[in-house]
Amino acid sequence: MYCRYLFALQVKRDLSQGRLTCNDTSTALLISHIVQSEIGDFDEASDREHLAKNKYVPQQDALEDKIVEFHHNHIGQTPAESDFQLLEIARRLEMYGIRLHPAKDREGTKINLAVANTGILVFQGAGSASQSNSLAVIASGAISLVVIASCAISLAVMVSGAISPAVIASGAISLAMIASRAISLLSG
User: Fold this and answer.
1) Neighbours of 111 (CB within 10 A)
2) Transmembrane residues, as ranges (predicted)?
3) Whose CB among 8, 22, 154, 181 lies 3.0–4.6 Å from 83's, allowing a Cys bridge?
C-alpha cells in the first residue's frame, strides 16, 4: 500500500515537471484522481479552489473544466483506490517510464535516446516525445533488461567519446546487433 502511494507521488511529480507526456484528456483524468485522493468526493466549489491553489501541470487552467467533470465520476473512491486508478491510467500511457536523453546523430541533428521495454528508442524532432517521430525501435522482441541496459551504457560512453564505436561493437553478438543501428546513427 505504501509503495503504491510512492508511485502515485512519482506520477504526480512527473506530471508537474513535464516528464509524463500525454494528451489533455489523459492529463485531466490523472489530475482528477489526484484531486480525489487529496480532497475526497466532488464538490465543485472546493474542487476549483483546490485547483487554483495547486498546479499539477503548467497549462492546468485550460483543463480545469475537464478535471472537475472527471472528478465528479469518482465519488466514493478512497484515496487508495484513486491512487490505484492513477497508476492504472499512467501505466497505459505510451511514454510512461521513458526518459529521453539528448544526443546528436552523425549530421549533428539533435535526437533523443530512450531505453524502453522494447529496446532503445530514437526520437528525432523538437518538442515533447508525443510530438516526435520515432526513427527506430532497436532490439524489438524478447530481450533481457541487462542487455538493454548494457547497450544504453555503451551508447552513453560512446557519445561521450570515451570508447570508439568499434570497441563497443566488438562486445557480445547480441549487444552488437542491438547497438548496430544506434551506432550507425551516432558515429560518422
Assistant:
1) 19
2) 135-157, 163-183
3) 8
87-106 residues labelled b (16+ CB within 10 A) or e (exposed): bebbeebebbebebeebebe
Q: Are residues 105 and 82 in the same domain?
A: no
Q: Which set of grid coordinates corresponds to residue 176?
A: 552488437
Q: Are residues 106 and 82 in the same domain?
A: no
Domains identified in the chain, total number: 2
Domain at 30, CATH number: 1.20.80.10
The whole-angstrom separation of Cα 110 and Cα 124 is 7
Give the closest residue to 95 by CA, choosing from 73, 76, 114: 114
In tens, the pLDDT along 124-176 reads: 864 344 333 333 333 333 334 444 455 555 555 445 444 444 444 444 333 44
- Identity of residue 81: E
Tell me the torsion sign for CA atoms 9, 15, 144, 112.
negative
The answer to whether position 174 is within a domain reads yes
Cell of 154: 555503451
Cell triple for 80: 487508495
What average pLDDT values come out for the chain (188 residues) when binned by 10 residues?
88 91 94 96 95 93 96 95 96 87 87 81 61 35 43 52 45 41 47
